[in-house]
């Protein structure tokens, strides 16, 4: 039991003192992997005296031969060392945190962010735990336009728990292959904080808050940002300041104006931007619900046009002369009679009697007298001078 307790305490001490570093790509001048931990895993000095890269990138005698070759336009990776397994260096995960993968083409004067990880770095670390899960490989894209040749890769990390003023940074020599010529000056500057840098970052500036996952003020576009929520760990931006390397030229967004910039509305409801549609994606419901009933057309199938109650069909005015054919005349062999309405004396003309009621229409003026007598003057009949008639 005593031996078991001693072994556990030794491991716990190693975890607390060991902190973290990356395994791949191999950092500059990294010692052999040692499960008991080593000083290489410690953060940079709070005074900024060994920023960047523990000053290893400028020291003579340090092997700067690239340990990884990345093809421009491909997917690369880094791996955090120390999974609490045999052969691995010690890792004190400090409840996880946020980290960035960056690259420098000017030997460490400035660094451009390739990918940002808000929370979940290292991965699968519960709050107030120093133990991480087995999968600590993180991928990112190498820009297709990236300058071909040697470059300096950087992994930086700010933990959720533990002491403040701890900025972790490992650098590795890599090589980019391809035909690109860009030094990625349009990419965000790597975030720098948790330490004082004369003329750049003063005491209290660019500091994280213990118990929170840092939200970087200039992380890059959504397709180069990964957000991982951890129960009980909210997100929070750093305090104000010029939170970037002195050699870099910061975009406006890299200058933190307050401690609330770029903070998700709440860690519990915040969702990471997703470049593709996830498998559980549910399309938004259209404004028209499933029970929607289309509006009825203004004229239904049984529509009957309304008819005014006092409707009177328009009268058509006939302006052409209409000739009415009357029944055949009735000849009489008898002697003339005195009635001029039935016979014409002397049979000079065919005499007739209209046996039906007729209406005579004419564009001439109407007769001035409706009494049809034999002796009626012609003017009384208007246009009917040649046909005398009587209506019964």
TrEMBL record:
Alphabetic keyword roster: Signal
Signal sequence interval, chain numbering: 1-18
Comp. bias intervals (Basic residues): 383-392
Family annotation (PANTHER family): PROTEIN, PUTATIVE (AFU_ORTHOLOGUE AFUA_6G10930)-RELATED (PTHR36182:SF1)
Stated name of the protein: Lytic polysaccharide monooxygenase
Ranges of compositional bias, category Low complexity: 358-379
Annotated transmembrane regions: none
Species name: Discina gigas
Annotated spans, Disordered: 358-392
